[in-house]
Amino acid sequence: MTGTINLVHVPCLAAYFWLFRGYAKETQRVLSSDGGVCWKLVSDAASFRDPSMAHILVIDDSKLQRAYMRLVCKDAGHEVVEASDGGTGIKLAVETSSKPGLILLDLQMPDMSGQQVLGALSERGIRTPVIVLTADDPTPIQDECLALGAARAVKKLEDPATLISLINSVLTDTDPAQSDVRASR
User: Fold this and answer.
1) Where are the beta strands (DSSP E) in the chain?
2) pTM score, whole prediction
3) To the nearest whole percent, how much of the chain has pLDDT over 70?
4) What are the residue ranges spanned by the domains of the chain?
5) 100: closest CA among 90, 114, 109, 115?
6) Under DSSP, is residue 39 helix (H, G, I), strand (E, B) or coil?
7) SS3 assignment for 68-79
8) Given its phi and psi angles, is residue 140 left (phi above 0), alpha (psi -120 to 50 degrees) or beta?
9) Tens digit of pLDDT for each residue in 131-152?
10) CB atoms < 10 A from the CB of 29, how many?
11) With 47 labelled, which of 1, 18, 147, 163 sits at a CA distance of 20 to 30 A?
12) CATH class of the domain whose range is 55-183
């Protein structure tokens, strides 16, 4: 889908709520029928998705990073399960009771690297989209991670709206170049 969706006219606080979560790309101040001020939310049809819950698995050895990603994802309406190491993350990804719709994977962990986790997931036939997050520049490892099955390899994101936008993009598969990479696996 392409084009623009004009969402509802909402009070100011609700407009910020939708912008923060990435469901609207801009707001326009308008007058309501009763003469009050409202906000018209505008979103790309391709990037707008129902904010229904996705099941996200966060694999990161840093308790602080897991807490940050959990709070951001839960605030956006997603369910989150956490693993503090690659082995536990692989077990959770395989279990049918907790099968995730998306995996957020740290690249550098003490027991298994992100690349090793991607390889193990691939060996087990897990085709869940994976976003690899690294504290360093992802350019040197990007091709390797994509070849191992990752949907994206990016620098860890400090901005919650950017993280949610990336998650929504992968969940809705709005980047044709990346869907071609996944389809070729």
Assistant:
1) 4-10, 26-31, 37-44, 55-59, 79-83, 102-106, 130-134, 152-155
2) 0.67
3) 64
4) 4-44, 55-183
5) 90
6) strand
7) HHHHHHHHCCCE
8) alpha
9) 999 988 888 888 999 999 999 9
10) 10
11) 147
12) alpha beta
| Cα 131 to Cα 104: distance, rounded to the nearest angstrom | 5
Angle (CA) 160-176-156 rounded to 5° is 25
Exposed, middle or buried by CB within 10 Å (0-12, 13-18, 19+), for 115?
buried
SS3 86: helix
Which structure tokens are listed for 143? 């091709």
**How far is residue 1's CA from residue 96's CA, in Å, rounded to a whole number?**
32
How confident is residue 58, by pLDDT bands cut at 50, 70 and 90? very high
